[in-house]
Write a structure and sequence with these properties.
Layout: H1 5-19, E1 23-29, H2 43-50, E2 54-56, E3 59-60, H3 66-75, H4 79-82, H5 93-99, H6 107-113, E4 117-122, E5 143-147, E6 159-162, E7 168-169, H7 175-191, E8 198-203, E9 210-213, E10 219-222, H8 264-297, E11 304-310, H9 330-333, E12 337-340, E13 348-350, E14 354-355, H10 359-366, H11 384-393, E15 397-402, E16 406-407, E17 421-422, E18 427-433, E19 441-447, E20 452-456, E21 477-478, E22 481-482, H12 483-497, H13 503-506, H14 508-512, H15 521-524, H16 530-536, H17 558-561, H18 571-574
Parallel strand pairs: 1-8, 1-11, 2-13, 3-14, 4-5, 4-8
Antiparallel strand pairs: 2-12, 5-6, 6-7, 9-10, 11-12, 15-18, 16-17, 18-19, 19-20, 21-22
Helix pairs in contact: 2-8, 7-8
InterPro entries: Alkaline_phosphatase_core_sf (IPR017850), Arylsulfatase (IPR012083), Sulfatase_N (IPR000917)
Pfam family, one: Sulfatase
Family: Belongs to the sulfatase family.
Length: 575
């Protein structure tokens, strides 16, 4: 058959479409919960994303606090490797991000190098302020309009800083209105340049608390402020009354276990706070709808991936806690993740275990950029074949870590002896979930006072019974093995993960078993390894509580003190 000019032109046009890199829109909310059912109150997100994409119900943040979580998300590295472990200097915030050399080594820079136009509006990092916004400017953005501290959470008096211009104060305009306008403006800019693919980060502050700092440098917390048109919605909504909501018996570990049961007036206030969160999310719901409509009108929707998630989760009343995050319990670390785009199954729910540390590798893979060797995560499976393969092959664990203080954000009046700040909230934790057969589902944690927690979340999904509490009566066996044998494996896994780097963070069992014959907890529970795990391997412990990452406070390190299952050798002898 002769190749006519028209056929050739059509073929070239089709090839150009197929070869064009996809566009990526990333929506990052602030403190949005999964377990308090916030996703049930965003119908437009359900219509456009949940029903047209895949929801990853086992997606986790690895540090349940804004800045460390966001740095992990944008760099593909865990907080113990970025050393950005807090929202404020000296341990965290934008200045620490810059000092660690990360401003030259993060996702927008890599996307620009691959030919993408990159845009961002909303909250970037904590301590990115009216004083340091240009010291230096965040690298890698074609266009940007950032919220700035100390006004980031001031819904009605925010400050924004666009590109290389000076900051601008907006008085009396809800920040959610501004973010929507700025995001759609950047989308129009991106659409107007059809020769380049684009990445747009949209970071509303909803449903984060409203917060301002007075002239005496005192924080004042309160509920988020919704748009006026949403202020009347959901008058009967309440925090879900799950078994761990303001329970009659104490639960949790460390300082959490000492909390008193909330009074009725506190519960009533927290229900109001919850409703304001839901109302504030309506502007995000409408923004997603507007983004979809713009992409559709420009005929770009079919070649665009849309990723929706939150920097961390949130609790209100669970284990008697006042509104906040920063703990390792499921409400704080298990967050929404929805992905829509070419090849992504529609209306499906994935059970594979994923985390924020996997998002930078995922986006780079979508953009056709070779993955970096120093990533601590792995790309998330998107297509049906990838997800099917992941059930058998993907890691089943999540590293969870935190340093420093915990804040209570509700703005409620505290009773005598109570405080809105907890000084020692440092801990190391992990989640491990058997995706293939659902034989096990554990949360294991060690606080900096060396108090241990273990929850069998197959039988205790609300984490009410700590099997390692001194008063607990744990089962004699789990998974057909002695209880102490299971605990020893979990401790060894955490021992590797708490200081892991790069591929070891994805394949930690290979560090313990270099022969490659152990890939998961089930493999590690083989009886022949009992002596190695129970008697020989070092145990996780802290030397003391610290506000940030100080190695000599963190106890034994696997890289120098850990043993391998091979003649009792240390890790350092093999690396």
């Amino acid at each position: 058959m002769r190749l006519t000019a028209s056929i050739l032109a059509t073929w070239l046009q089709l090839s150009a479409v197929l070869a064009k890199k996809p566009n990526i829109v990333f929506v990052l909310t602030d403190d949005q919960d999964l377990h308090l059912q916030s996703m049930d109150y965003v119908p437009l997100i359900k219509k456009h994303l949940t029903d047209k994409g895949t929801s990853y119900k086992r997606h986790y943040c690895t540090t349940s606090q804004c800045c460390p979580s966001r740095v992990t998300l944008w760099t593909g590295k865990l907080a113990h490797n970025t050393n950005v472990t807090d929202v404020l200097p000296p341990w965290g915030g934008y200045p620490k991000f810059v000092d660690q050399g990360l401003n030259e080594n993060w996702l927008p820079v890599w996307l620009q190098e691959a030919g993408y136009d990159t845009y961002y509006t909303g909250k970037l990092f904590n301590s990115h302020s009216v004083d340091n916004y240009d010291k230096p400017f965040p690298a890698g953005w074609t266009g940007s309009d950032f919220l700035l501290d100390p006004f980031t959470y001031a819904y009605m008096t925010p400050w924004y800083q666009r590109n290389r211009e000076p900051p601008v104060a907006y008085d009396g305009i809800n920040t959610q209105t501004l973010i929507s306008e700025k995001a759609l403006g950047f989308l129009d800019n991106a659409i107007s340049n059809p020769d380049k693919p684009f990445f747009i980060g949209i970071a509303p502050i909803a449903p984060h608390s409203n917060m301002y700092i007075d002239e005496n440098d005192v924080r004042h917390w309160g509920p988020p402020i919704p748009l006026d048109k949403h202020a009347h919605l959901f008058p009967d909504a309440q925090v879900p009354r799950t078994p761990n909501f303001n329970p009659d018996i104490e639960s949790g570990g460390s300082w959490v276990r000492g909390l008193r049961k909330q009074d009725d007036d506190v519960v009533e206030y927290n229900d109001h706070y919850y409703r304001e969160r839901l109302r504030s999310l309506q502007s995000v719901d409408e923004l997603v709808d507007d983004v979809i409509k713009r992409l559709e009108a420009a005929k770009l929707l079919d070649n665009t991936y849309i990723i929706y998630t939150s920097d961390n989760g949130f609790h209100i009343g669970q284990h008697r806690m006042q509104p906040g995050k920063m703990c390792g319990y499921e409400e704080d670390i298990n967050v929404p993740l929805i992905i829509r785009g070419p090849g992504v199954p529609k209306g499906e729910v994935s059970n594979v275990v994923t985390a924020h540390v996997d998002l930078a590798p995922t986006i780079m893979q979508l953009a056709g950029i070779p993955l970096r060797d120093d990533f601590d995560g792995a790309a998330i499976p998107l297509t049906k074949p990838e997800q099917k393969k992941a059930v058998n092959k993907r890691q089943e664990h999540v590293t969870v870590e935190f340093w420093g203080m915990a804040y209570m954000e509700g703005g409620v009046v505290f009773r005598g002896g109570e405080t809105d700040v907890v000084l020692n909230n440092t801990y190391k934790s992990l989640r491990v979930i058997d995706v293939k057969k659902n034989d096990y589902n554990f949360y294991y944690s060690i606080w900096c006072n060396n108090e241990h927690e273990l929850y069998d979340m197959k039988t205790d999904p609300y984490q009410m019974t700590n099997l390692l509490h001194p008063t607990a009566k744990p089962p004699k066996t789990i998974l057909g093995r002695p209880f102490e044998a299971v605990v020893a494996r979990l401790d060894a896994l955490l021992f590797v993960l708490k200081s892991c780097k790069q591929k070891t963070c994805v394949e930690p069992w290979r560090a313990l078993h270099p022969a490659g014959n152990v890939d998961n907890l089930k493999d590690a529970l083989n009886q022949r390894f009992d002596d190695f795990y129970i008697k020989q391997q070092k145990k996780v412990r802290f030397e003391r509580c610290e506000a940030g990452l100080i190695i000599d406070a963190e106890g034994p390190q696997f890289e120098t003190d850990g043993l391998l299952y091979r003649d009792g050798s240390s890790w350092s002898e093999w690396t």
